Amino acid sequence: MTSAKANDSIGALRRNLDAGSGAAKPRNIDVSPLIDSDGGLIDRSIYTDREIYAQEMRRIFARSWLFLAHETQFKKPGDFFTTFMGEDPVIVSMDKEKKIRVYLNSCRHRGVRLCRADAGATKMFTCTYHGWSFDLAGALQSVPNETAYPDTFKKENWSLIEVPRVETYKGLIFGNWDKNADSLEDNLGDMKYYMDAMLDRDPEGTEVVGGVMKWELEGNWKLAAEQFATDWYHVNMSHASALMVLSPTGKGPKADIAATPGRQHGSENGHGAGFPTHPKSRFDAKMVHDYYDYDFLRERLGDDAVEGPMTTGHATVFPNFSYLPVNGSIRVWHPKGPDKIEVWAWILVDKSMPQDVKDAQRLYNLRTFGPSGIFEADDGENWSEIQAISGGFVTNSVPLNFQMGIGSEREDGTYPGQTSELYSDAAGRAFYRHWAKVMNTPAWHETN
């Protein structure tokens, strides 16, 4: 059996296992009563209910485009990086033809984690349990004591399970378990315009520097993803002390900057981006700011992109990839249960930047949105506080308010797609509207 055929068998194998073991079929919950996106009300149980979380694994993470890594993490055949798609561990690697391939990080023999290193280079993936070895194309090559197996045992039937769809967008690598999913670019749609303000400033592209930072937070993954999609509203309150530190006077930004105008994009596919349009809304490292040729950028990206989504904005690609265009932070909110997130963050820079400018960007990133950054700590505290009290019976029965900006969504003639005011919950409503749609639609493994 080829890797492709092995992938085709995943759904059938699961159904057969369930039938043979007598295991109860998972209950699919109709989440429609929990999401009133038109009225701007969200049921808090979507952050705490374990059955809803399990359904997210089946219907959100098993068929969405999920960010895996950046192309510059792979330079030669054998380079690999281990990560997750939902809670499924995967190996991202470059094969001998320099093609990026993604495999389930589970040995086909007894199912132990095949590759335990975070990243590295190898010629073979060898299991430390019984020694089964797989090549860079996922094929089983070596089985200790193979003669003890029956004649019906064929190594070609036991290749690694391969993620069937792997596509990139301007250096970002995404994977999808659904072989019939829309293309990555079609899924991104209008969101590409907002992403380009970070990914397409340099004709040579981008690269990641400094490794991957990882830390855990108490909170549901949607709290983080939704905030990065929609919530500028919290900035002046939650980050007040950090804004004072960064302001020239030490008193915080001037009133016209604090109340900056701006726009917010909410996609029908759940993506979201918000950004100020005040000319001084750039609290990035001065060396980085001075490096940019803004006339060149206006010619390359357009005036509106430079004055909008290239500024101090925030964004999420549904479901769990977020980024901050000014300080070059890209991150994944890995779900680790309904009440825990593992954050993985990279620092993204333009390839053409001189080394001292790259260093300035990296240090600025660490000081602001690194694991102990002056802004990052505020956000994590908010999410953990929401989660900490959400188990209460009465607390969990009170709906949450997402009504800011209702009715303001429109085609504004400047920015692609539906946009709203910067101070709005429009992208949050779009995020949960799409979440509910996907949660209520059978996935590929339920219909094949």
UniProtKB/TrEMBL annotation:
InterPro entries: ARHD_Rieske_2Fe_2S (IPR015881), RHO_NdoB-like_C (IPR043266), Rieske_2Fe-2S (IPR017941), Rieske_2Fe-2S_sf (IPR036922), Ring_hydroxy_dOase_asu_C_dom (IPR015879), Rng_hydr_dOase-A (IPR001663). The keyword Iron applies. PROSITE patterns: RIESKE, RING_HYDROXYL_ALPHA. One of its GO terms (molecular function) is iron ion binding. Keywords: 2Fe-2S, Aromatic hydrocarbons catabolism, Dioxygenase, Iron, Iron-sulfur, Metal-binding, NAD, Oxidoreductase. Residues 66-163 form the Rieske domain. Belongs to the bacterial ring-hydroxylating dioxygenase alpha subunit family. This is Phenoxybenzoate dioxygenase.
